[in-house]
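Appendix B. One record, verbatim.
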Amino acid sequence: MVDTSIGSFSDFTSTYVGFRVDEELGSGIGSTTAVGRTPIVSGTFELDGSTLVAAEITADLSKIRTDRSKRDNKAKQALDTDNHPEATFTLVGPIDLGDLSGEGVEVEVSAPGTLTIKGVTNDVEVELAALLVSETMTVVVIGTFDIVFADYGVEVPSAPIVLSVEDHGVVEIQLFLTR
């Protein structure tokens, strides 16, 4: 299961799901990368030996906080969190993880799945790295993948200081899994 008790969201050593998107700001500020994350993540993973046979991760987008608090409400409005507060990734095929028998063993895999944002579901391929970090069977999973906002009906937010925002971004995940 996804364990949200490990680490701290304040320094990003805990479980989170988030995004990064590049934008161009006016008034001589220049380029920046907007970052938003939510620590409210749940999910389960099912293993059969060394094969991941099922996984589902749900993130509460209504709890997203960005690197600039003035951006928080715009991000939530763009994601329509009043009507669609959650985003969900569901694994669509088994993944052989190979040998996970020792602490410090890292496995890199590509996870095929579906991602639902704002009630719109699309196929995605998530590049993941999993690392067994303790004898208590804690596994850290990190991953990223690109998305095009329009594919999910997300309109890029605007503000007077923002000259332009990319039409795509990177979704990032960091999960701590325990039994």
